[in-house]
Write a structure and sequence with these properties.
Layout: H1 5-8, H2 22-36, E1 59-66, E2 71-76, E3 82-84, H3 93-96, H4 99-108, E4 123-131, E5 136-143, H5 149-154, H6 156-162, E6 166-173, E7 185-188, E8 195-199, E9 202-206, H7 216-233, E10 238-241, H8 247-253, E11 260-264, H9 267-280, E12 285-289, H10 292-298, E13 308-311, H11 319-328, E14 334-339, H12 342-351, E15 356-363, E16 373-379
Parallel strand pairs: 5-6, 10-11, 10-13, 11-12, 13-14
Antiparallel strand pairs: 1-2, 1-4, 2-3, 4-5, 6-7, 8-9, 14-16, 15-16
GO biological process, one term: rRNA base methylation
EC number: 2.1.1.189
Binding site for S-adenosyl-L-methionine: 213, 242, 264, 312
Length: 380
């Protein structure tokens, strides 16, 4: 048996590789990444960073099914049949303990789960994020409209009393009847606006719509690896593109005293990164809210260009325009590329013909799946 009754009973198959022994999973994941990235030589791969097999997820995305009298948190098929996954072994105990009071609160607030086929109901998702060091939770409720917000505000004290670990509660409005998890509008119900996540003793302030890695332990090693590479290359000026809440830039500032600029299109994420930098007294780090492509194009005529760039793009990769900028910029000598999609990473590296891989490493952020995070150190 593999430790998950949902899988054994055929109720959930999200962890497609769960029947495979974890040591074998790591071997196969390393081999798959090597096959997708032939430009990385066999001697350039560092040992894969493994995950804890269970209890490693700091985030939960739960589809809401059932009825408001008996809500289910987990998955719902296209016929509207719900399967509750509250006891999923991927979640730490502190997160799992929050599911029951959240369900009770859904009932108390009469929040009808959204019905996909009938396109009726209000509550679509419950999204949780857990901070192990803070022992705190951020809970986001994705709803179809603002119809239930007054009831949710009125009942908020009840939820916080039933589950004291909850520090941040917000409501996301997603009116589109499609498989889109969240919409642009977020309404925070609590006085506290962000949840503090900690990696390698650095505070990272996570607002409701900010991106954060799913696996704390593996993410911490990802950033430590980047630090080790930066210690080797000793950059004079560094850009962190797609910086999110500032993870790479803030870690870089711990080992490099040179100017660092972090760029992220989300103004919320930039505000979080600026808060962390201010708390840590990092005067050499600045953050700006705009797209990486816009920033790179705007800085082409600048006198002081970076010699080192870190990129951590979404699954689509950095794309042709940014690849061309990096390829044609004589000042950029070192590139650290962190990718959650080896296929788009390979496509981008094929356009960076002036750069050569020095080292690469696979990080198993998502155990029991085919997903892999790969980070590559390149030099011109």
């Amino acid at each position: 048996m593999n430790g998950c009754e949902y899988f054994n009973q055929g109720l959930c198959r999200s962890c497609t590789n769960l029947p495979v022994p974890y040591a074998q999973q790591l071997i196969e994941k390393q081999q798959a990444c090597a096959a997708q990235l032939p430009m990385v030589g066999s001697q350039q791969w560092l040992p894969i960073m493994p995950s804890a097999p269970f209890g490693f997820r700091n985030k939960a995305k739960m589809v809401v099914g059932g009825t408001w009298q008996n809500p289910q948190l987990g998955i719902v098929d296209y016929a509207g049949v719900a399967q509750d996954l509250s006891a999923c072994p991927l979640y730490p105990q502190a997160m799992a303990q929050a599911f029951t009071p959240i369900k009770d609160w859904i009932t108390a607030c009469c929040l009808a789960p959204y019905q996909i086929v009938a396109r009726s109901g209000e509550l679509k998702y419950v999204l949780l994020t857990y901070s192990e060091r803070e022992q705190g939770l951020m809970v986001r409720f994705v709803v179809r409209s603002k119809e239930a917000i007054a009831r949710m505000r009125q009942g908020l004290a009840q939820l916080l009393s039933a589950c004291p670990a909850i520090q941040v509660v917000s409501v996301n409005i997603q009116p589109v009847p499609m498989a889109i998890v969240e919409g642009p509008e977020e309404i925070i119900l609590t006085a506290q606006q962000s949840l503090t996540m900690w990696l390698n003793d650095l505070p990272l302030h996570l607002k409701p719509q900010s991106f954060f890695q799913t696996n704390d332990a593996v993410a911490a090693e990802l950033y430590r690896q980047a630090q080790a590479w930066l210690m080797q290359t000793q950059p004079e000026k560094l850009w962190d593109l797609f910086c999110g809440v500032g993870g790479f830039a803030l870690h870089a500032a711990q080992c490099v005293s040179k100017p660092i600029i972090g760029i992220e299109i989300s103004s919320q994420a930039i505000a979080s990164a600026q808060q962390s930098a201010a708390e840590l007294g990092l005067e050499s780090v600045t953050f700006r809210a705009l797209s990486a492509d816009e920033f790179a194009c705007a800085e082409k005529a600048a006198v002081e260009m970076p010699d080192t760039v870190i990129v951590n793009p979404p699954r689509r990769g950095i794309g042709a325009e940014l690849c061309a900028f990096l390829e044609n910029s004589p000042s950029v000598q070192t590139l650290i590329y962190s990718s959650c999609n080896p296929q788009t990473l390979a496509k981008d590296l094929a356009m960076l013909t002036s750069f050569r891989v020095q080292q690469a490493r696979v990080f198993d952020m998502f155990a029991h799946t085919h997903h892999a995070e790969v980070m590559v150190l390149l030099s011109r």
